[in-house]
Amino acid sequence: MIRLRKCAVWATLLAISGAVSAQQNVAQQNGPAPSAEGRRTIHVQGTDATEAKIGQLIKEMTLEEKVNMIHASSSFTSGGVPRLGIPELVTSDGPHGVRLEHGRGWDDSQVHVFDSATYFPVGVCLAATWNPHLGFLQGSALGAESNARGKDVQLGPGINIIRTPLNGRNFEYMSEDPYLISRMVVGEIKGMQSQGISACVKHYLANNQEINRSHIDVEMSERALREIYLPGFKAAITEGGANTIMGAYNKFRGQFCTENAYLIDTILKKEWGFKGIVISDWGAVHNTMEALENGTDLEMGTDLDMLPNPDYHKFFMGDTVLTLVRNGVVSQELVDDKVRRILRIMFKTRMMDHGRQKGSFDTREHQEVARKVAEEGIVLLKNDTHILPLDAHTVHTVAVIGANAGRLNAQGGGSSQVRSLYEITPLQGLKNLVGAQVKLTYAQGYTIARGAQADPALIAQAAEAAAHADVAIIVGGWTHGYDYAIWKDNAYDAEDVDKPNMDMPFGQDELIRAVVKANPRTVVVLMGGGPIDMTRWETTVPGILQAWYPGLEGGTALAKILFGEVNPSGKLPMSFPRKLEDVPAQKLGEYPGDGTTVRYNDGIYVGYRYYDTYKVAPLFPFGHGLSYTTFGYSDLSVVPAGKDQVTVRFTVRNTGKRAGSEVAQVYVHEEKCSVDRPEKELKSFEKVYLEPGASKVVTLTLNKDAFQYYSEAKHKWVLEPGRFDFLVGSSSRDIRLQGNLGL
Ligand code: BGC
Question: Carries keyword Hydrolase (predicted)?
Answer without folding.
Answer: yes
